[in-house]
Write a structure and sequence with these properties.
5-stranded mixed β-sheet; 9-stranded mixed β-sheet; alpha/beta; single chain
């Protein structure tokens, strides 16, 4: 096994960022006699999978070649024929994959088809963790049946996200805000609260300018449907805005918002608020693999308390607001005892810019 080829397959897969959902990112590399004879990258718009693209490029040189790939070849009929069968037909002699496909429709069956045909199959264990991280939303969705939910926020060193009187200016730098755009590009959906919309008239768009497999779905938690009819978000709506209300919301507001292109969902939760768990379940039913929350203090806490947050991504600016009226990252009642605090593990520190960093970590959830 040549580890350099496994790495190249992973890098090829990475070229599909934002362009494969609800499918995983896949890169394939065919090597024969020490020479690369075929390369392939998957995008959702191109129905052909990475393996098929690599086989087409290699042609007859695929016979006797070794296929390096970041994910087990599919074995089921979807939008395309099973890739495992195409690999057998092409006469490939060996397949080296970074990980087994967690999709229950595959999950070792692709490898089984290859082995029955006499093709040597090897998993590169040193690259499995890297391959899972690359396709984290897909892996999470296949194992848990729900989108990966990330709570993102920018805060001061003392944990504040908003000042009590004037919030002009930014907590973090332009570099950090550009980094956030990459997170948005990688996400399938983004959620905020009506309070943020009323305060900022935000767009919540993906401004990377790169191709996507589908538009970034923008969701607003708005129990009473107070969404302004002439907001920037509604003005830019192209079947990509969902407003989540309760059954107590006025019917005429629903009609007016739907007339402007928004989809209105009703999910009643405790205390007359919208049910965030139902929002996640609805996203799962629509095959959205990932959701990023960019909201205010109340919605942040509601998401944590509802036990829907899988990971956090906090950007810290080198500033201190202090005081008791500046809003913390998560408001609401919070936890009354230290022993009841929500735990976060697997922390990763990211250097963002001078005097600026981000913390990424995974929330201990009650699964």
């Amino acid at each position: 096994m040549n580890t350099a080829y496994v790495r190249e397959a992973l890098e090829l897969a990475r070229q599909g960022r934002g362009q494969t959902s609800p499918n995983p990112m896949v890169g394939a590399l065919l090597v024969r006699d020490g020479q690369v004879v075929g390369r392939g990258v998957h995008t959702y718009a191109d129905k052909k999978h990475a393996e098929i693209r690599a086989l087409e490029q290699a042609g007859e040189q695929a016979r006797g070649a070794t296929l390096y790939i970041n994910l087990e070849p599919c074995s089921h009929q979807g939008r395309t024929e099973p890739c495992a069968e195409a690999i057998v037909a092409a006469g490939v002699s060996e397949v080296i994959a970074a990980m087994q496909d967690p999709n229950p429709l595959v999950s070792g069956r692709g490898f089984g088809i290859l082995r029955v045909a006499g093709i040597k199959v090897e998993i590169a264990p040193g690259f499995t963790a890297m391959a899972e991280e690359l396709n984290e939303p897909f892996v999470h969705f296949m194992r848990d049946g729900r989108p990966l939910v990330t709570l993102k926020t920018a805060l001061t060193l003392d944990g504040k996200i908003a000042a009590p009187d004037d919030n002009r200016g930014w907590i973090t730098s332009e570099v950090a805000r550009a980094h956030v755009q990459q997170l948005r590009h990688d996400a399938d959906a983004i959620l905020t609260g009506i309070g943020t919309v009323l305060a900022d008239d935000c767009l919540l768009t993906d401004r990377m300018g790169l191709d996507r497999s589908r538009p970034l779905l923008r969701l607003v938690v708005d129990s009473q449907l107070r969404m302004p009819l002439h907001s920037k978000m509604l003005g830019s709506c192209r079947d990509d805005v969902v407003i989540v209300a309760t059954s107590a919301a006025p019917r005429d507001r629903r009609i007016a918002l739907e007339a402007r292109g928004a989809k209105v969902l009703t999910f009643d939760g405790p205390g007359g608020r919208t049910d965030l768990r139902s929002v996640v379940e609805w996203l799962a039913s629509e095959k959205y693999l990932s959701l990023m929350i960019e909201a205010g203090s109340r919605v942040n806490w509601a998401a944590l308390e509802a036990d829907i947050v899988d990971k956090v991504f906090f950007y810290y600016g080198a500033k201190i607001l202090g005081g008791t009226q500046a809003l913390p990252m998560a408001g609401g009642p919070g936890r009354r005892r230290r022993v009841d605090a929500i735990g976060v593990h697997g922390l990763i520190l990211h250097n963002i810019a001078k005097d600026e960093f981000a913390v990424e970590g995974y929330v201990h959830r009650n699964r």
